[in-house]
Amino acid sequence: MYTIAALYHFTRFADPAALKPALLALCRDQGVTGTLLLAAEGINGTIAGPRAGIDAVLAHVRSLPGCTDLEWKEATSDEPPFGRMKVRLKKEIVTMGQPDIDPRARVGHYVDPADWNDLIRNPDVAVIDTRNDYEVAIGTFEGAVDPRTRSFGEFPAWWEANKHRFHNKRIAMFCTGGIRCEKSTNYLLGQGVEDVYHLRGGILKYLEEVPAADSAWNGACFVFDNRVSVEHGLKEGPHELCHGCRRPILPEDRARPEYEAGVSCHHCVSETSESDKNRFRERQKQMRLARERAGGQAPT
Fold first, then answer.
1. CATH at residue 140
2. Stretch 199-220: mean pLDDT, rounded?
3. 79 pLDDT band (50/70/90 cuts)?
4. Rounded distance, CA 97 to CA 62, Å?
5. Which end of the chain has fewer CB atoms surrounding its CB within 10 Å, N or C?
6. Over 90: is that where the pLDDT of 225 sits?
């Protein structure tokens, strides 16, 4: 059984690069895999491994400057969710491209999962999904506005073009684990929006705590590991990953003519050139050979 820990924390790291070697060495020593991002504004990522290994890494992260009150969300998996461990240095731990954003200064009002339904069903509240379009496509909250952004960095421009739609509305925003809303609520407050709310702990906390019978959530929630999606109770969802474009697909989508394992699906078949597809085919071939040598199977 693998323990999965999703975490983020905004703090000020004077020298993120200096933190990388010890963190990476500890993860590898403890058999922990996944990805952690370090930036001057903090840390973000998802890791998986044995219980003792996860505990050791979380203890190390809590010892970093300003991280004593680190919070994280956990799940379990029978299969290893990640192939290797990566610690990356980034300009932002979640990219919005707004240099003046500082979630440590102020954010919107946190709303616990138990109170979220009452808030979003209020007629004077506009609910905005801050995730990317392919995430929204497989599940979202009832009545939520989909900005149809391909990356979080497009959100400020979308807001500027659409803010007239939300005049005299309270704004409630949500994302997978909460990190994007830390920035988006700070951004809207800076734009003069007075009543801004966001879901504490994100969709994952809502699906963990709110029973399906009482849910305002429709569909599944995309996650950035080999589970691909989760449903209520954080049960693994039905989706698979197209290894051509990294978007979620359903098992029945593999029967569509656009699907080629590791190369394309109906989402991306027209987005890549034949040269790209040949590269993907070669990659798939090498992965298949490696798996066969190891006695396993190539991903689909």
1. 3.40.250.10
2. 96
3. confident
4. 27
5. N
6. no
Residue 152 backbone phi and psi in degrees, to 5: -65, -25
Structure tokens at 276: 């790209």
Flag whether 137 is in a domain: yes
User: Considering only CA atoms, which of 119, 242, 124, 224 is closest in space to residue 177?
Assistant: 224
Same domain for 200 and 121: yes
Neighbours of 66 (CB within 10 A): 14
Whether residue 96 is predicted with pLDDT greater than 80 in this model: the reply is: yes
| Percentage of residues in the chain having pLDDT higher than 70 | 98
Q: Which domain holds residue 28?
A: 2-89
Rounded (5°) CA angle 154-272-33: 70
Is 98 inside any structural domain? no
pLDDT at 86 over 90: yes
pTM: 0.86
Q: What is the mean pLDDT of residues 156-174?
A: 96
Closest CA to 19 of 59, 51, 63: 63
C-alpha to C-alpha distance for 158 and 163, rounded to whole angstroms: 8
Indicate left, alpha or beta for 277 from its phi (over 0: left) and psi (-120 to 50: alpha). alpha
Structure tokens at 2: 């693998």
Distance CA(189)–CA(39), nearest Å, equals 23
Task: State how far the Cα of 293 lies from the Cα of 297, in Å rounded to an integer.
Answer: 10
